[in-house]
């Protein structure tokens, strides 16, 4: 059974990074860990201790895993988790006494193009009936206006949770990181203007699709590999490993060669987000 989100289940703060920090401080004690898959949004590294699911089963002494953190849509892949995958995550969290944190900041930045007709659509974890699967109090959703509304500098983020005690604690922490009145007013005006909201989101998604097809076409023509089938966000995950220099001592390129390529791109006036910041499993990948 799905339920509407209630006002008392929302805590607002100055940006999603800030509200995520409050959430982690509320859920975790010093030394606790949070599970997150790789590659991941670079901002997650500041609040996560461990980054591989297999670590969970190693039962490291003194280390308690508190939560599983996902970005849906995924950053940097630009894809959405299937409903089945989200249900599996819920079951996993319930079985292992974990919280499920879903960063859904790109929820409205979804698009369709001729090349991604089979791409999985967006499903919020709040839209999936979870009776008998997971305690609803274990699910916490992060959202903000920075990405879907192209307003990164206005700093307005929120957490949605049905855990009353957690909301009470986070509301207290939020007193020290209020969002600004201009940001608060601007988003209220936007959300209450149904006609503008419909136009804006439609145009936003149309332009994202146009940009994706344009860039994907260039990469295809150049023979540059990338994660195909993306349908969310404003980025692609591309493989530039072919441009890495070979180490002087022989062997395969590593982080040093990866960073050297990054600096070479910057000197050439090209700025890409290096995969090392996203905990990429292989060198040479960029967002």
Description of the molecule:
By secondary structure, the chain is α/β, with parallel strands linked by helices. It folds into 2 domains: 7-190, Aspartate Aminotransferase, domain 2; 195-286, Aspartate Aminotransferase, domain 1, CATH 3.90.1150. It is 31% helix and 12% strand. It is built from 6 helices and 8 strands; from the N terminus they run E-H-E-E-H-E-E-E-H-H-H-E-H-E. It has helices at 16-27, 83-95, 164-174, 181-192, 194-222, 255-267; strands at 10-13, 33-35, 65-71, 99-103, 139-144, 157-161, 238-239, 285-286. The strands form 2 sheets. Strands 1-6-5-4-3-2 form a 6-stranded mixed beta sheet, with helices on both faces. Helix 1 packs across helix 3 (164-174). The radius of gyration is 20 Å and the shape is globular. One of its GO terms (biological process) is amino acid metabolic process. InterPro entries: Aminotransferase_I/II_large, Ethylene_sulfur-biosynth, PyrdxlP-dep_Trfase, PyrdxlP-dep_Trfase_major, PyrdxlP-dep_Trfase_small. Residues 8-275 form the Aminotransferase class I/classII large domain.
């Amino acid at each position: 059974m799905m339920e509407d989100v209630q006002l008392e289940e929302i805590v607002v703060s100055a940006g999603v990074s800030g509200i995520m920090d409050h959430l982690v401080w509320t859920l975790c004690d010093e030394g606790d860990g949070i599970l997150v898959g790789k590659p991941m949004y670079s901002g997650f590294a500041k609040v996560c201790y461990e980054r591989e699911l297999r670590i969970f089963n190693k039962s490291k002494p003194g280390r308690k895993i508190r939560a599983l953190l996902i970005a849906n849509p995924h950053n940097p892949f630009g894809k959405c988790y299937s409903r089945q995958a989200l249900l599996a995550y819920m079951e996993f969290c319930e079985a292992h006494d974990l919280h499920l944190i879903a960063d859904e900041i790109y929820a409205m930045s979804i698009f369709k193009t001729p090349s991604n007709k089979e791409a999985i659509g967006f499903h919020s974890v709040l839209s999936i009936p979870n009776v008998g699967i997971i305690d609803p109090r274990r699910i916490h959703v992060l959202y903000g206006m920075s990405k879907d509304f192209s307003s990164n500098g206005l700093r307005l983020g929120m957490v949605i949770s049905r855990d009353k005690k957690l909301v009470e604690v986070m509301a207290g922490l939020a007193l020290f990181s209020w969002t600004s009145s201009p940001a608060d007013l601007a988003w209220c005006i936007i959300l209450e203007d149904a006609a503008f909201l419909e136009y804006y989101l439609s145009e936003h998604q149309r332009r994202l699709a146009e940009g994706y097809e344009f860039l994907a076409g260039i990469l295809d023509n150049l023979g540059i590999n990338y994660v195909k089938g993306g349908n969310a966000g404003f980025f692609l995950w591309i493989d530039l490993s072919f441009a890495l220099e070979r180490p002087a001592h022989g062997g395969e390129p590593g982080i040093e060669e990866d960073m050297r390529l990054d600096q070479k791109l910057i000197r050439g006036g090209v700025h890409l987000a290096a995969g090392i910041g996203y905990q990429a499993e292989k060198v040479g990948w960029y967002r």
